[in-house]
Amino acid sequence: LSPPRRLGDPDPVRERSWWGWGWADQAVTGPELDALVGRVGAFLPLSGEVAQVPAVPTLPASRLSVPPGVTARTDDAARAARTHGKAYRDVVRNLRGELDHPPDLVWFARDAADVARALEFAEATGAALIPYGGGTSVVGGLEYRGPDRPVITLDLSMMDAVLELDEESLAVRAQAGILGPALEEALRPRGLTLRHFPQSFEFSSVGGWLATRAGGHFATGYTHIDDLVESIELVSPAGVATSERVPASGAGPAPDRLWLGSEGALGVITSAWLRVRRRPTFKAGAAVAFGSYSDGVAATRAIAQSGLGPANCRLLDPLEAMLGAGATDGGSRLVLGFESADHPVEAALGRAVELCRDHGGTPADAAQWRGTFMRAPYLRDGLVRLGVVVETFETACTWSAFEALHAAVLEAVSPAVVTCRLTHVYPDGPAPYFTVYAAGRPGAEVELWDGIKARASAALLAAGGTITHHHAVGRDHVPWYRPPGPFVAALRAVKATLDPHGVLNPGVLGL
Ligand SMILES: Cc1cc2nc3c(=O)[nH]c(=O)nc-3n(C[C@H](O)[C@H](O)[C@H](O)COP(=O)(O)OP(=O)(O)OC[C@H]3O[C@@H](n4cnc5c(N)ncnc54)[C@H](O)[C@@H]3O)c2cc1C
Q1: How far is it, in rounded angstroms, from Cα 139 to Cα 144?
Q2: N or C: which end of the chain has fewer CB within 10 A?
Q3: Residue 470 C-alpha to ligand 1 middle, in angstroms?
């Protein structure tokens, strides 16, 4: 028996931060904060003043009452914590107490029938309904921004059961609200793993991953949740759609492809079958130093095109290597990792290191990037409290476009400081991930960031990149989300058919 939990909290005892990332007790303080000031203060002026963690603000009264038999909350704490996602601009506005469109009602869905009931209620009351998985959106996917109307946040955290496991076919069926750790916990005793590890893994959900086409941290090969899904159940005002569960099919356009990346605008994903794998037992890793960044890029491309398929192949530029991996020599770092549940991987690692040597790479100390990586969202919030503008954005482009794209981004965000790491690499191109640091102007941080983001986004598109490799479109990326015209017309027609009253997450994807 698990202890009763507070609604919407993954842990019954521990408190989630309402304004920032993760657990409240993990916020950066004391010596860790001092060390952060030292590291970042080396390249950015810091005032040393730290914004206080705000109390939950008093919100306008809810305009909706809870229908009988429904599990819901209308208190300020529940509504404030779900007003925004977890982007930089969300954290800043929370710290300032600027919550312009809080939901009126947080409805905790219990099953698919309850989801259908919530949709009917939204239609009847003229409310917008925003599906909410783990709440880690960084693109304004959870924040209503349209004309004044009541807003319901449909929280799926109570739909967190693992429903079925097909060990013969290596697949699991889970409800959409389950978070990464709970799913892995259920699979571990069977020697299985989904092995989908976005950086937000601890607090993001299966439904959120599918709705945003999340990317895990397999550097090569199957990293997008798109490749791991077998079948989806989705509830919309037009009914329940459950796709066929088969390993592959050539029968017409695939329904799941329509739901993947639909960001709650076409329906609510209630459960899914996902492909799992045996847990890796063979592992090998190495770090390689490059004096020249372009040599590092060339080596990374050689590995991506070699067919070796490393699980980790993460190229850190010099500043990223300093901040994220403790490198002090001013060079870049390539962090390599191989794994298998079936065979030793030393030979593959050896060959990858050889390819690095061919491009001037030399063995380096094993980088400590993983700890920094998991701690990064807390550090980001610490910097925000210090008044720093700090945010990430990511893209993907062909290898032939990369050098010019990289240069264009650096120029577009200047004079802000920017670091780059290649998080995923494909035979035809990398997924560069940028982190921006700029000194904030008190009260104008969001505007400053929005300006940097607009310049960077325009540069990405002009240089042949996508507006997002894995962060989704939400509302923030709409100006730079440009699918072909006939596709947009088709998408609008689908939206009108499935959601005729426009209740489902209005505004995301420009719908
Ligand atoms: C620190 C940090 C690190 C991150 N790292 C990564 C990363 O490595 N890879 C990556 O891909 N992303 C990353 N993200 C972005 C985010 O975690 C992903 O977009 C994630 O997939 C969102 O999942 P969630 O459950 O939190 O969804 P939410 O934030 O709750 O929702 C995201 C969107 O999906 C919709 N939605 C949620 N659940 C459903 C559902 N069941 N049915 C229909 N629509 C639904 C919501 O309405 C919203 O539009 C990161 C975010 C943060 C803050």
Answers
A1: 12
A2: N
A3: 9
For atom 50 of ligand 1, which residue has the closest CA?
A: 200
State the distance from the centre of ligand 1 to the C-alpha of 321, rounded, in angstroms. Answer: 27
Please work out whether the CB of residue 199 comes within 6 Å of at least one atom of ligand 1: yes
The ligand 1 atom nearest the CA atom of 156: 41
The residue nearest atom 27 of ligand 1, judged by CA position, is 208
Inter-axis angle of helices 445-462 and 88-96, nearest 10: 170
On average, the pLDDT of the chain sits at: 93
Residues 6+ apart with CB under 8 A from 273: 164, 171, 172, 173, 229, 230, 231, 232, 245
pLDDT at 47: 78
Q: Is the CB of 204 under 6 A from ligand 1?
A: yes
Give the H or E element holding residue 428: none
Q: Quick one: tokens of 254?
A: 């695939």
For the chain, which residues score pLDDT lower than 70?
A: 1-13, 366-371
pLDDT at 1: 35
Lookup: tokens for 128:
């917008």
CA of 265 to the centre of ligand 1 (A): 14
Three-class secondary structure assignment of 454-500: HHHHHHHHHCCCCCCCCCCCCCCCHHHCCCCHHHHHHHHHHHHHHCC
- What is the structure's pLDDT at 373? 73
The model's pTM is 0.96
What per-residue confidence (pLDDT) applies to 3? 43
Q: What is the 3-state secondary structure (H, E, C) of 472-483?
A: CCCCCCHHHCCC
User: Is 419's C-beta closer than 6 angstroms to any atom of ligand 1?
Assistant: no
Ligand 1 centroid to Cα of residue 484, in Å, is 25
Q: How far apart are CA 324 and CA 484, in angstroms?
A: 38
Tell me the sheet residues that pair with 130. 153
**SS3 for 73?**
strand
- Ligand 1 atom nearest to 206, measured from its CA: 25
Percent of all residues in the chain with a pLDDT value above 90, rounded to a whole number: 83
Q: If you take atom 37 of ligand 1, which residue's CA is the nearest one?
A: 208
pLDDT over 70, % of the chain: 96
- Does the C-beta of 361 come closer than 6 Å to ligand 1? no
